[in-house]
Batch of 2 targets.
Target 1
Amino acid sequence: MRLVISAFCLLVLFSYAAAYDPLDPNGNVTIKWDVMSWTPDGYVAVVTINNFQTFRHIMNPGWTLGWSWAKKEVIWSMVGAQTTEQGDCSKFKGNVPHCCKKTPTVVDLLPGVPYNQQFTNCCKGGVVEAWGQDPSAAVSAFQLSVGQAGTSNKTVKLPKNFTLQAPGPGYTCGPAKIVPSTIFLTPDKRRKTQALMTWNVTCTYSQFLARKNPSCCVSLSTFYNETITPCPSCACGCQNKKNCVKSDSKLLSLVGVHTPQKDNEPLLQCTHHMCPIRVHWHVKLNYKDYWRVKIAITNFNYRMNYSLWTLAVQHPNLNNVTQVFSFDYKPVNPYGSINDTGMFYGMKYYNDLLMEAGPRGNVQSDVLLKKDKDTFTFKQGWAFPRKVYFNGDECMMPPPDSYPFLPNSARVNLPTFPAFIFSLLFRLAIW
Ligand SMILES: *[C@@H]1O[C@H](CO)[C@@H](O)[C@H](O)[C@H]1NC(C)=O
Ligand SMILES: *[C@@H]1O[C@H](CO)[C@@H](O)[C@H](O)[C@H]1NC(C)=O
Ligand SMILES: *[C@@H]1O[C@H](CO)[C@@H](O)[C@H](O)[C@H]1NC(C)=O
Ligand SMILES: *[C@@H]1O[C@H](CO)[C@@H](O)[C@H](O)[C@H]1NC(C)=O
Ligand SMILES: *[C@@H]1O[C@H](CO)[C@@H](O)[C@H](O)[C@H]1NC(C)=O
Ligand SMILES: *[C@@H]1O[C@H](CO)[C@@H](O)[C@H](O)[C@H]1NC(C)=O
Ligand SMILES: *[C@@H]1O[C@H](CO)[C@@H](O)[C@H](O)[C@H]1NC(C)=O
Ligand SMILES: *[C@@H]1O[C@H](CO)[C@@H](O)[C@H](O)[C@H]1NC(C)=O
């Protein structure tokens, strides 16, 4: 048994390290460079960042893209983004480049920059929506003019060692690969043009690399049992406990406490779970053909407004969602046939902003599900979600033996073991 458990743990670790996400197996961020023209000493390229992840967006404070030049390239100018440092350009007289660093670090511009610094899909402070939320907003782009570089597709050297912080760690990028040149359609769709050369870089996310603790937890309750199953204690690690703030603390009225920090360091409300986010799943009503769940998301971070938040949930009955009252909803179908996963997100201008901790720091909605007579049951925790992800990070569930259960139902302990083996087999099968 011990062997099986350690094998299972290893498998989990390994699947994390390989950046494999069972709910979004094909998700990635692609960085595409299109060379638009060759110049006397280099080229002009358009760099496009596409977020192909179903439910993981790039949130505040946005992406930071880095790479290493293969030779002595410099960036003469940039439109729609900027490097964070210019570096040492002292050997240039007259025309001084935008950046002379060997490893430039690029960030998006903020909204509202002057028109002549803008570029299509730029200037959103590095925030990029998830593909499942809005494919047209899952993109960010800028243009740069590279000097001291190759001036043809035979002499150009591809940049190396791409890094993407989106924001913070978690993404691993592969090498740049030359791909068939992008074809562009003019706005009136009457003419096609073509990039002179195109290369792609693919980056994938791993929660394991991003942080050592979860960043959210799940609590459960039902109409048929008054027990509220709380989030597990220290679900998100208790190392911040000494810095947490009680919800009635006078500190909270001080100016500046709610200001986001440069390093995105949270200021958490003191809770036993110490998570910035709690997702509560309440089994609310039972009708003849339907049942109703209430989902509430609570923010415990005083320093963060979550814009464009997403909640991905796996539950066998999500194949038959009848109505979602106050969130937008989209089914996610990672394996074609089993559509037991869905994505909830805020309605634009209504609740797509989950406010900082406090009286307004929560969003909620009811979900009406149609019962499938063959599988529906309130027994053995069937009515609770199997997996919950907030903003693309998996939330910690309470242990199954603490779930509220149906009164008078004989507890069957037997299924735990086969269920464990089954999940092991399932992981192996999809791996
Ligand atoms: C990146 O994601 C897209 C969309 O899911 C997929 O078509 C493509 O194959 C992925 N690329 C890699 C290298 O995995
Ligand atoms: C390169 O990236 C673009 C998106 O930026 C994608 O549409 C295209 O399929 C990618 N090409 C390859 C060969 O992966
Ligand atoms: C380089 O450009 C030439 C034409 O200028 C073209 O025939 C060739 O296929 C290109 N090579 C690559 C790798 O794009
Ligand atoms: C890329 O990164 C590797 C390991 O971090 C390093 O050894 C190598 O020198 C880097 N390459 C360039 C061109 O900076
Ligand atoms: C969150 O948004 C509200 C309203 O826009 C603003 O007053 C507050 O300062 C923001 N909080 C943070 C931490 O950014
Ligand atoms: C689940 O998948 C089936 C078949 O692929 C489809 O007909 C059905 O509409 C899907 N359900 C939802 C809620 O998307
Ligand atoms: C949803 O429920 C209806 C009615 O029970 C059923 O006919 C249909 O097959 C269900 N859809 C799925 C995808 O299970
Ligand atoms: C509610 O569920 C808890 C387990 O979480 C159990 O201990 C308790 O007996 C249940 N209450 C009733 C009335 O069955």
Target 2
Amino acid sequence: MKVYADNAATTRMRASALAAYAEAAENYYGNPSSLHSDGQEAKSLLEECREQIATLLGAKPKEILFTSGGSEADNQAILSAAHLGKLKGKTKIVSTAIEHHAVLHTLSKLKREGFDVVLLPVGTDGIVKLSDLERALDDNTCLVSVMFANNEIGTIQPVEEIGKLCRERKILFHTDAVQAVGHTEVNVEKIGCDYLALSAHKFGGPKGVGALYTRQGAPLYPLIEGGAQERGKRAGTEDLPAIKAMAVAMNEAVETLPETQKKLTYLRNKLIAGLEKVPHCALNGDRDRRLPGNVSFCFEGIEGESLLLLLDDKGISASSGSACTSGSLDPSHVLLAIGRVHDVAHGSLRLTLGPDNTEEEIDYMIQEVPKVVGYLRNMSPVWRDLQQGKRQYIL
Ligand SMILES: *Cc1c(COP(=O)(O)O)cnc(C)c1O
């Protein structure tokens, strides 16, 4: 059996999005900045897409900027708020220890430039505490950046409460909603955010395209200089087929959200219950306040990387922590932040489900994952020490 269970890394394109991509590439090849009718037809399709995406988010069309994806949107939001902050003499930024690297590395850059960057801890449930956030905010704070849903452990942050705190204190609030859009309800008015990042390839759209919502009046500075596209905030000829495919994928994801959520929550809970039967393992992140398709575990006494390779042999595409973390020797910063010690964090497995996954696939994973874990443990010197009492179990 072949099972794709790495939907947090990227998704297969929806058939509707693929068709829309081809159709736009074939028929709307004009440059939206050109004055002839080919250009103007492309321009009006571009603006239709902007309107559709804005409506799906509860935003106004002019608040939507098309980008090359989630990373660019995160960078632009944070750097824009920081730039204005600096002009006003406010140089503190509050974020969390579990953000995506697109946020964390942008913040490291600002820290080197003199910003005071505070990364709030999260509890063992993988959720940031409002009291910690409230305590961190002061008159020097120019930005709060807290992700909507975590890409590794799927935990959902209290973004509406955070939005309210920020509004009361007139502090800009950015949320990286890349894992949330198309997977749970996302509305910028409800959240009360000033910026929101999304990426098409996480909800069945193409890779290399995304969007940044910027509340009207919030600062926005270009990262890429050049032509006057995107109201001068993002130079470069727009990738109209990708943008059209993103709009179609997002529309379909939002329209089918209730049924997908119901299906995935059922499959997720079944998978969690099945894997929990393995001794000395633990679910990562809160059991309920998590994305419908996210299953993340740590198995004591094994290496996540070996687990992935053996699962791949069984036809199962999974992940251990984030794609950016694999290949490096450091365990995932997210797992460390929820209190997993190094050894345990190394034995992590992330299975992320999408609308195409079936119950047969879940049953197959419930059958195969414990077998592979058992096989690896039998060969593991760490496991032998645990079994012989030379080491204490942590999980
Ligand atoms: C995937 C992801 C990103 C990066 O998006 P790209 O479109 O791949 O640049 C940012 N944040 C989170 C939470 C993600 O999951």
